[in-house]
Every structure is written in C-alpha cells, then in structure tokens.
C-alpha cells in the first residue's frame, strides 16, 4: 500500500473525536498503536498514553460512557510506560464494572439503554478482564464467564451475532450487524489470547470464534466486503466490517487459532480495505453510530463516519495484514516497506 496514504491516514487519527470515553475508542487505540508501528513514529503511542493519563486524573466520579474505557489498551500502555498508577486505576475500573447489575451472567452497563446487552461490549470488557488475570488470577474466571454468557445470549445457530439482547423480553433483535461481527470476533480473540493454555472455557471461545468467522466468510461479497447487515443483500456495503475481519482473521492465523486456508478470504477483504481509502488518507464508507432497530433502520444509517472505529480499525488492518504477509513469506513485516 502507498506509504504516503498510510502516513496521511495515521495523521488523521489526531483529528477524530476522542471523547474519553465512547464506543469504538478501543479501535482508535488499535489505530494509534498501528500508526506508530507502521511509521516508526512514537508520537501516536504517546498520544494514546496521554489520553489514558487524562482519564486517570479525572476517573472518579465516573461519567457517562466510562464503561467504554479501552481497559485492555490502557493496561498495555501502563506496562509499556511502567506506570503503576495507571495499573491501579484500571484495576479500580474493573471493580466498578463488576458492581453493575447482572442478568443471565452478563453485565448491564449501558447508560442509554440499560435493559439491553450489546455485542459492542464483547470487545471491551472480557479482554480487559482477562489481561488483569496477570495481576489477580480470579479475573481469568470473571473474563471467561462474562464472555461466554454474553456470547450464548447473542450468537445464534448460524454462528453470527445479533446486535442486542433485551433482558426483559429475553429476545435478541435478530439483526446480524456487520461491525457487530467484528466487535464479537475481536472480543473472542483477545480474550482467548490472554487466558492460560488449558483454561476451562478457552476451547469454547475458540469454537465460537471459528463459527462466527466461517459464517461471515460465507457472506463475503465478490469485492471482498460485507453488507452492513451481513445476510441482508438489500442493505448497503459497509467498509469497517472488512477492516475488522482483516484484523481478527490475520491475528487468528498468526496465533494458530485458524488454518492458513483462510488467507484467501483475508486477501479479498484486504482489497476492499485498500479500495476504501481516499487520496488524503481518510477511510470511507463506514456507518455512523448504529443503535438497535429493524433491518430498515440499519439500511438508513449514514455511512460517512470519520471516527475512532473507522480510521483506527483501518490502520490496524494495514498493520495486521502486513504482519501476516510477512509471516507467510518468512519476513518480519512490521513496518511499511519491510
């Protein structure tokens, strides 16, 4: 991919709205880490660390949407910068999350829709809690139990994830939202990576990941992308799903979770990612904030988002695709040009 486009895409990450915090912030952090890796410029990682430290200074009392803190990413930054204060803060955040109401083993943490369980949070809470297992072993159990209870409510027999589950009606919305499959795949993968080998429930997590991935691959368009409702061909093609797929599937091959035969689908999705960049580095065709509704609602959501989940996920996809290609070709593949 053209180096200038990647560098422009990376610089644009500074211009997206960083709300500290909001849904999709974790994908923005993936993008900042990828930007530093791809360009060799640590200012992106330092920017992420600055956001984490800003939260650390104001973290109590908690504010609306603080449940979307990118805890895993903040913990990784704390380790990188040897910041014990930030580690202590994210442990305190985990304790705050754990105090929320639980229904059917899942946590009700949403500020706007307190009776809904969302697929989005699969990528936020379980991976973060699993990473905390290195500090307090009981968090391995908490993370695994939370993830599997969440997945059992949202993943259907086809392997795809519904967007929401209503705890009052005990029903899902029945919609297989494209980016929602990406959030689910990342939550499953990142939790699986951080649980110890042989940990009870880890095999079920791996199985659920593979089922979702294969169901998604069966619905890939000839251009390599997916519809915003992946099994609704009347809905528009949406770009972030391809980026999320590339991130998750590339890492899954790298970590031995899936065989290399999936690279065929990754290459197709990569073409869709490449073709979604404008000349100034902006990643196009991404749906805006998407709530729960019927299929007609999802078809109507504008796809002009410039956000952490658009720009960040696209940069992370570049990084993971280059790394996988390097692995398959026997090279390091960490930076542009390698």
Question: What do you see in this structure?
Answer:
With 338 residues, this protein is mainly alpha-helical. It has a single domain, classed as Glycosyltransferase, CATH 1.50.10.10. Helix content is 53%, strand content 5%. Helix 1 (3-12) packs antiparallel against helix 13 (308-328) and helix 4 runs antiparallel to helix 5 (84-98). The longest helix has 21 residues, at 308-328. The termini are close together. The mean pLDDT is 96.
Please describe the topology of this protein.
Blueprint: H1 3-12, H2 25-39, H3 43-58, H4 71-80, H5 84-98, E1 102-103, E2 106-107, E3 116-118, H6 125-132, H7 138-154, E4 164-166, E5 171-172, H8 178-194, H9 202-217, E6 226-227, E7 237-238, H10 240-254, H11 263-274, H12 295-300, H13 308-328
Antiparallel strand pairs: 1-2, 3-4, 4-5, 6-7
Give the C-alpha Rg.
18 Å
Query: Would you identify the CATH architecture?
Result: Alpha/alpha barrel
Q: Could you tell me the mean pLDDT?
A: 96
Q: Percentage of helical residues?
A: 40-55%
User: Largest sheet, order of strands side by side?
Assistant: 3-4-5
Regions with pLDDT < 50 over 5+ consecutive residues? none
What is the CATH fold-level name? Glycosyltransferase
How many separate structural domains?
1
Q: Hey, roughly how much beta strand do the residues contain?
A: under 5%
Continuous helix count: 13
The string of secondary-structure elements, in order, is HHHHHEEEHHEEHHEEHHHH
| The level-1 CATH class | Mainly Alpha
Distance from N terminus to C terminus (CA atoms, Å) equals 12 Å
Number of strands: 7
What is the general shape? Answer: globular
Q: Which structural class best describes the helix and strand composition?
A: mainly alpha
Largest sheet: 3 strands, antiparallel
């Amino acid at each position: 991919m053209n180096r200038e486009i990647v560098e422009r895409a990376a610089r644009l990450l500074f211009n997206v709205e960083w709300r500290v915090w909001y849904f999709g912030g974790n994908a923005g952090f993936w993008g900042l880490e990828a930007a530093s890796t791809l360009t060799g410029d640590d200012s992106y990682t330092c920017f992420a660390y600055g956001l984490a430290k800003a939260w650390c200074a104001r973290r109590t009392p908690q504010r609306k949407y603080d449940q979307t803190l990118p805890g895993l990413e903040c913990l990784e930054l704390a380790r990188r910068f040897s910041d014990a204060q930030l580690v202590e803060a994210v442990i305190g955040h985990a304790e705050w999350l754990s105090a929320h109401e639980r229904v059917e083993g899942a946590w009700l943490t949403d500020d706007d829709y307190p009776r809904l369980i969302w697929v989005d949070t699969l990528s936020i809470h379980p991976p973060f809690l699993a990473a905390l297992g290195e500090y307090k072993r009981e968090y391995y159990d908490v993370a695994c139990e939370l993830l599997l209870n969440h997945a059992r409510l949202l993943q259907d027999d086809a392997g795809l994830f519904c967007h929401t589950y209503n705890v009052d009606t005990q029903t899902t919305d029945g919609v297989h939202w494209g980016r929602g499959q990406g959030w689910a795949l990342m939550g499953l993968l990142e939790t699986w990576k951080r649980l110890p080998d042989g940990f009870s429930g880890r095999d079920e997590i791996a199985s659920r990941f593979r089922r979702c991935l294969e169901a998604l691959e069966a619905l890939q368009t000839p251009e390599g992308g997916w519809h915003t409702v992946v099994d609704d061909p009347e809905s528009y093609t949406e770009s972030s799903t391809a980026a999320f797929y590339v991130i998750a599937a590339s890492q899954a091959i790298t970590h031995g979770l899936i065989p290399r035969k999936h690279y065929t689908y990754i290459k197709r999705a990569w073409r869709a990612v490449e073709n979604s960049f404008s000349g100034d580095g902006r990643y196009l065709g991404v749906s805006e904030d998407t709530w729960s509704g019927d299929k007609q609602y999802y078809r109507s959501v504008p796809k002009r988002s410039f956000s952490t989940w658009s720009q960040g996920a696209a940069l992370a996809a570049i990084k993971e695709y280059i790394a996988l290609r390097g692995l398959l070709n026997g090279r390091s593949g960490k930076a542009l040009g390698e």
